[in-house]
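Figure 3 (text version): structure tokens given as input.
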């Protein structure tokens, strides 16, 4: 059973890869604990959002991903 993590922007740079697979089920605590310390610290900030199967979560701490789900980690958007 697995969940696909997709890292976008700066988070992909921190992760060193654009995506990875982790064990399901996956909640917020297991996500943070399963990542390298620098990446885990980066996603804990208020500006990083999570999307579960294409839907941005209002509160990333409510993450509840199961078999076959995709979790995208969305860094802050910048531009001008």
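Below: residues designed for each position.
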């Amino acid at each position: 059973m697995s969940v696909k993590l997709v890292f976008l922007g700066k988070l992909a740079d921190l992760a060193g890869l654009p995506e990875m697979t982790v064990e399901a089920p996956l909640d917020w605590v297991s996500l943070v604990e399963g990542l390298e310390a620098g990446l885990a610290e980066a996603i804990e900030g208020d500006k990083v959002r999570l999307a579960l199967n294409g839907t941005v979560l209002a509160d990333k701490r409510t993450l509840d991903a199961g078999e076959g789900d995709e979790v995208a980690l969305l860094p802050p958007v910048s531009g001008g």
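The chain has one domain: 3-74.
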